Amino acid sequence: MPRVAPSRIGLALTAATLLALVPRAVAAETKPTTAAASDPVARLHDLFDREWAWRLRESPELATSVGVHDWDDKLSDVSLANQARQIEDTKKFRAELAQIDRAALAGEEQVNYDIFATQLDQRVESFRFGEQYLTLNADSGFYSGFPLIWQSMPFQSVKQYENYISRLRAFPLYMDQNIALMREGLRLGITPPKATLVGLEKTIQPLTAFAPEKSAQWTPFTRIPPQIPAGERERLLKEGRDAILEAVVPAYARFFEFMTKEYLPGTRETLAASALPDGAAYYRFLIRQYTTLDLTADQIHQIGRDEVKAIRAEMDALIEKVGFKGDFAAFLKFLRTDPRFYPKTADELLMRASYIAKQMDGKLPSLFKTLPRQPYTVAPVPEFLAPKYTAGRYNGAPKDSTQPGEYWVNTYALDTRSLYNLEALTFHEAVPGHHLQGALAQEAEEVPNFRRYSYISAYGEGWGLYSEWLGKEAGFYQDPYSDFGRLTYAMWRACRLVVDTGVHAKGWTRQQVMDYLASNTALSLHEVETETDRYISWPGQALSYRIGYLKIRELRKRAEDALGERFDVRLFHDAVLEHGAVPLPVLERQIDAWIAEQKPATP
């Protein structure tokens, strides 16, 4: 999955989750231009352009993440008053959209209209349900994105370094505003569950001290380019160090004290999203948001149980194939405890991941006609994040950045990082999964910016899980234990449908979730615990993977059945990816249209 949840304003792959400090007049931003007055398509795209410009001004972090560097010296104004004002702006944009006749638009413009309307509606609903108070979850949050914000910034001139130093100096206000939001969340009872945040302080404490060799935010100052004069270099080093020591480190120290003495003790004892104010409606909203489908919790729960049963049959057959003497539980214990399945060093894990990724790179031309230009690399999960973090994630970069995309691999607690899962993890997070899909989306210049940089979870995570399966077709998983790793990852995503709905709609306990994952997958017990806390503290997101995967597999079978020998998997994959992230019903319509185009003309 991508590194963080999408921005509530930006809805983009960005470390930013909130908004900007630039003062402005709303009327100037929301007023349509006269050139677009008569043509509905022109009116629509004029609205898209103005709202996108508004998003970038409202969220400097979003602007930075998509390669717009006009506000690299600023951080978002996340005060509750400013967020309320932004919601009023959003309602104005939504009202203007409603004045455009959707029926007068062509097919692809109707898709643009519908996705845009959904984004605006979800932004308003999110605020109504109080998501602005939920600034973090079990493994990350606003505080963990900031040390890495430099990765999307250019550092080729004195001015660019000065922008970064100004951003460091702006961090205390940003931190205090987030603390104020969290404090209000405590008062309202809108917090993550207490049980999921145990140990989170371990990811904050390293940020409360400055050690140049370990402080992520210091990294740009270790790479000052030679064209910057020596005198300026010394000044920038001093000002950067002072900004970190005088602004950033004290802000994190305040946050650590707030978290340990006030927030963690005061968070809610309940687990379910449905236990929050208006929680049942909130969870229904999350289901719609993350699956893009009108499904109930009961329906998803049953889909999950059916999928678990089917995958278990495949797992049992593979256990029999390797000749293991013992039951399913004994086989899982064998996988979790035999040293052969675990790396001895972090370098070994990273090198194995890199080799797998490079081998898949060589397969891509046989699977895709269109490939992205942006490269990617393999890197460890940042040390301060690793203890509570998932096994791996993709960390994207702007299209024209000097930074590559990054496939992160967690090297913390190596005795829990199973090698038999590594092929599946790599195909999901790197290629042909998130890197390939995300980089192509950024290069899809025919779609509006709000779509190019949007992340629709059912589409993106469905593609990631499909990519794991695609590895099998491409000739990977030759080792039967690695093939079992593929199946355990498939089982893991099927289990998510059961446990997410179980805990958030059916009253499951944390222990029930852990037991269900531990007894059905070969995930390490450490991962079972961190993943359980992720699902509980990030409700709904886990539903997107298997639901999206099932739809993509369904559409591929439909295309194969309809086209027979005319089916070209490369063209099918291009058809899935060429329009960027879309809701699953839209993807279905697009693939049906593509199938019709591939059929020979009737004489």
What features would you describe in this structure?
- This protein is mainly alpha-helical and 603 residues long.
- It has three domains: 1-133, no CATH class; 135-269; 283-547, no CATH class.
- The chain contains 23 helices and three strands.
- The protein has a three-stranded mixed β-sheet.
- Helix 13 (346-363) crosses helix 14 (422-429) and helix 19 (510-520) packs across helix 20 (525-537).
- The longest helix has 37 residues, at 230-266.
- The chain starts with 25 loop residues before the first helix and ends in a 5-residue tail after the last helix.
- The model is unreliable at 3-28 (pLDDT under 50).
List keywords for this structure.
603 residues; mainly alpha; 3 domains; three-stranded mixed beta sheet; 2% strand; globular; disordered N terminus
Number of helices: 23
Number of strands: 3
Distance between termini?
Answer: 47 Å
State the helicity in percent bands. 55-70%
> pLDDT average, as an integer?
93
String of helices and strands: HHHHHHHHHHHHHEEEHHHHHHHHHH
Main β sheet profile: 3 strands, mixed
The percentage of residues in β strands lies in under 5%
Structural shape = globular
How many separate structural domains?
3
Look at the helices and sheets and give the structural class: mainly alpha
Low-confidence residue ranges: 3-28
Whole-angstrom Rg: 24 Å
Biggest β-sheet: strands ordered side by side in the sheet: 1-3-2
